[in-house]
Specification:
Layout: H1 6-20, E1 22-31, E2 38-47, E3 58-65, H2 73-94
Helix pairs in contact: 1-2
Amino acid sequence: MNGPDGLDVAATMKALEALHTGHVEVVLSPDGIGFNASVSTICRMRFDVLPGSDLPPSVEVTGTWPCRDHKTLTSHLYAGLFQLDFAISKVYKQEELFPE
């Protein structure tokens, strides 16, 4: 099978943790009732922030699977981690290196 697997997801999580100095979480929850219900997904970074920091304590992106863009749950989560990295980069761009 082509595409990302669980090891790719785990490696990406560890890479994001090292890059952004925090802890990555992937949360899966049933969305709805019944056997054919979809799954709500959350990819979240919890930062190791010091008191008084301008960074938020966490950044997250959400999704629902199945979706039209990903055939497998693993590929959906893998894409979610890249979306998380992009969301984190937007938070950093809002930071001023030397605020007045």
